[in-house]
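Running this now, will post back.
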Amino acid sequence: MNRRLLLSAGVAVAATVAGAFTWMGRKSQESAAPAGAGDPVAGLLQLQMPDLSGATHTLAGWKGQPMVVNFWATWCAPCVREMPELDALQKKYPHIRFVGIGVDSAANMQKFVEKVQVSYPLWVIGAGAIDTLRKLGNPSGGLPFTIVFNADGGINRKILGEIQPDDLNQTLSGLKA
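Update: finished.
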């Protein structure tokens, strides 16, 4: 299958799955609304998201460090394919903070990590995050969607669709702590 077909299928599935997670969607939208409402990047950095144990985190806690933020879902085949590559890059660049933000339910993600494990943290934003993705420059709301942040908090790069490991490696090699 080509990338566009997979991406289109992922968007269609996302729209379908979104209805199944109305509670998660409401929770993520409620927590997203107050912080940085006018600036989507500031809003993302302040957004409180639970990890798979229920502890709450924000990207703002990593201020001053370069970051790779990968939006994914358990039902997204390209997302799942790129996870081992992201894990390998995270191990290669320990000074860069990696996080996988699940556009999914915590229960689905917990079942998933029993089979596919990564060494970087996984946080839950829920299926209601499609609007957040659009505001961040992903008009289709498609997955996977990766944002690379410089240490100063500015966006270095956005990648819609599956990462190309060599290409992302080149970007990461230029990031300073």
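The helical segments are 3-20, 22-32, 40-46, 77-92, 106-113, 130-135, 165-173. More later if anyone needs it.
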